[in-house]
Amino acid sequence: QVQVVESGGGLVQAGGSLRLSCAASGSDGSINVMGWYRQSPGKQRESVAGITSGGNTNYADSVKGRFTISRDNAKNTVFLQMNSLKPEDTAVYYCYADPYSAYPLRYWGKGTLVTVSS
Q1: What single string gives the DSSP state of each residue in 24-64?
Q2: CA dihedral (14, 70, 34, 19) positive or negative
Q3: What is d(CA 78, CA 117) in angstroms, rounded to the nearest whole number?
Q4: pLDDT over 90 at 6, yes or no
Q5: I want to staple 76 with a disulfide (CB 3.0 to 4.6 A). Which of 24, 68, 69, 98 is the partner?
Q6: Residue 83 Cα to chain centre, angstroms
Q7: Is-contact 78 55, C-beta < 8 A?
Q8: Using an 8 Å Cβ cutoff, are 37 and 46 in contact?
Q9: Integer Cα distance of 29 and 8 in angstroms
Q10: How far apart are CA 107 and CA 87, in angstroms?
């Protein structure tokens, strides 16, 4: 059983920065993809960014140029550096991990709240 735990959420003013972290523990092997979704009130959950074990990344158009996803494979940890934050970025951010050994299962964190004030 893999546990996924996010941290780093909080309150920040527009134009500021936050760095989210997510650690996956309990995996018996490597993790293929790790990434982030977010959900705001009244909206569907949307993919923000993802990264493979090889470093291939994908970003939502709304965050390109502002957010950077990275990972530490040895520690099964993924990071989301969020710069130039906008009030529209306010959401609960959920981390996920796809271990190779657990395929096709995806494990999710409980979420961390990011609030961007204007």
Answers
A1: EE--SS-EEEEEEEEE-TTS--EEEEEEETT--EEE-TTTT
A2: negative
A3: 25
A4: yes
A5: 24
A6: 14
A7: no
A8: yes
A9: 26
A10: 28
Q: What is the pLDDT of residue 45?
A: 96
Report how far residue 16's alpha carbon sits from residue 78's, in angstroms, rounded to the nearest whole number.
21
Reported as a single tens digit per residue, the pLDDT across 49-91 is: 999 999 999 999 999 999 999 999 899 999 999 999 999 999 9
Nearest to 111 by CA among 29, 15, 40: 40
pLDDT level of residue 1 (50, 70, 90 thresholds): confident
Compute the mean pLDDT over every residue in the chain, rounded to the nearest whole number.
95
Largest CA distance in the chain: 44
The strand pairing partners of 70, in sequence order, are: 79
Q: Which residue has the tokens 């490597």?
A: 30
